Amino acid sequence: MKLILSLDSDRIPRVKKLEKQQALHVRLDFQGVRTHVYTNSSYLVSHLRLGYRYFETADDDQPHLALLALEADRPQFRESVMALSPSRELRDHILISRHLGLIFLLEDPPLLAYYTVKPLFSQALFLLRKRFVGLHAATLSYQGRGLLLCGAARCGKTILTALLMDQDFSYSSDDVTLLTKKSLKVAPFPRALTIRNEYQELIKPLLSRARQVRRFKIADQERLLVDLAHQVPEQVEPSVVCLPQYEPNQKTQLRPVSPSTAFIALMRNRFHPLVGTLEEYEAEDFHLLSRLVDRVSCFRLVYSDPVEAASMLKNLISRGDGGK
Question: CA nearest 99: which of 157, 153, 37?
């Protein structure tokens, strides 16, 4: 994705008009942030409805966020481009965010959905900052006790989440965790799971019960988008914060870590908005996350076998004392 144009004041009325002209429209509500996606792409609509079914709403009130996604070689694309920028010839997919005031060029058709969702969530998380801290983490619960798995990409959050769901854990969020500032509880943010193809055999029982499964590619890597249709708890109070770390050929180890170690990991794994800065909330986040790690048990999980790791996590949570 590359920036091609700024959305100046002259273009905004044209964009609003183009939004209304699109045949397809998805309305989403992210914890009170109303988002409308206008598009000519049936692929994008099906992707959004599969991945973000929990958030879809019939509410047609004025949105907080609006995105216009135009797929090339689809109905009305050329007419839309001419209306948007008569003096320039644009051949690739176009994504327009009125909130950011930016127009993006998307060069790869399979990535239209990926690059639409990326700014969608970044902008929604920015607007949610007054009520939540957004963490790069998954959250589940078992018998009322919450487990927060925090870490960057490829640490194994999603496969551990899937395996734990197959062991009767309730699913609250994967990849995006919203920590409520007032209560330090996790608000639900459940998306369809994006699972690497190599893990398909590990979760066969879960896939057999899924509402819908779709294959797609990101950067030449095949993934499964899995809508599990599980009941989602309203709020989850974390009892354990775990820092998973996938290490090939390593024996599975679950070790306690200090609150300060967990705190640093949580601070590092806050979501960075496309607008504004994390520094604006530095002091507040410091205070909130310090309170969180002081009231939970903190662990580091190093593993190469996700099944063994998930079993170890379930045993930990089942003890009821968070390992203390």
Answer: 37
CA angle 193, 197, 199 (to 5 degrees): 80
| Domain identity same for 264 and 144 | yes
Pair (246, 295) in one structural domain: yes
- Sheet of strand 221-227: strand arrangement: 193-196, 221-227, 212-218
Terminal Cα-to-Cα distance of the chain (whole angstroms): 47
Distance of CA 286 to the CA centre of its chain: 23
How is residue 117 written in tokens?
Answer: 């969702």
The Cα-based distances of 13 to 19, 25, 76, 195, 322 in angstroms read 10, 18, 18, 40, 55
DSSP string, 236-278: B-EEEEEEEEE-TTPPPEEEE--HHHHHHHHHHTBPPPSSS-G
77-86 pLDDT tens trace: 888 878 877 7
Claim to verify: residue 250 and residue 290 sit in the same structural domain:
yes
Residue 198 is encoded by which pair of tokens? 């190599």
Same domain, 137 and 85: no
Q: What is the SS3 assignment for 95-138? A: EEECCCCEEEEECCHHHHHHHHHHHHHHHHHHHCCCCEEEEEEE
Who contacts 83 (Cβ-Cβ below 8 Å, separation ≥6)?
14, 17, 18
**Strand pairing partners for 3?**
104
Are 123 and 157 contained in the same domain? Answer: no
Residue with tokens 């390593």: 250
Task: For residue 109, give its domain range.
Answer: 2-127
- pLDDT value of residue 322: 57
pTM for this predicted structure: 0.90
